[in-house]
Amino acid sequence: FAGSFMGMYGMTFLVLFFSVRGTVSYFNSENPLLLLFLVFCGTLLEAAMLVLLGFMAQAGSLWLVVLRWILPQLVINVLVAYIVLAFVTRLQR
Fold it and tell me: How many domains does the chain have?
């Protein structure tokens, strides 16, 4: 979809980056559960932005693709974030 609708994924990730960057200072980033929750919320925000921008770009059935794969993407993102967090915590010891 990114090749057909120039900049849609770029705009989505840019908005996601700035929203996480703006809100992370309000939270205790040392809490591992909060970091996993931020990954979860970031994934949901990404999906919402793709659906919204897909409707604006008249991307057809993009929202069906996003809704079909949101649950596996949520699980994989949180699982990978947990593994990376555990690895980094182990390296700090």
Answer: 1
